[in-house]
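thought: fold this chain, then report.
action: predict
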Amino acid sequence: MFDFFKRKMPRDREGMRADFRSVMAELAAADAVRRAAVGEGLNILTTAFVARFSSSSSFQTQPRAEQMQYLKSLITAADGLSVRDPWVALGFRLYAMYVAALMENDKELLSEIGKQLASLSREGDFGL
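observation:
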């Protein structure tokens, strides 16, 4: 379905941006149910992130080893979900991209990714 499932997170900014844009182009063609599944995954992760770190600025003050451990846990979770629920797994991968940009404090990339994730998050909000 997505090449992104078969590759590790890109290490460079332009590689991540290209992967992000590719995934978003695929999502633009996806139906509402699939987009909602991606958004649901994002919402689950956002809730867990806030419970663990309180805020993005708090996450950025954590030791690099802890940040990397968290990023790796997102990728591992996405890998585990990819067969059972690839759309939720995609939400996890997109969130991992956001966390990677957060780790680098790349404001431009955070803005680009953040806007798209916020939109998908709203699509995954079932009002529960």
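thought: worth noting. The first helix runs from residue 13 to 28.
final: tokens above.
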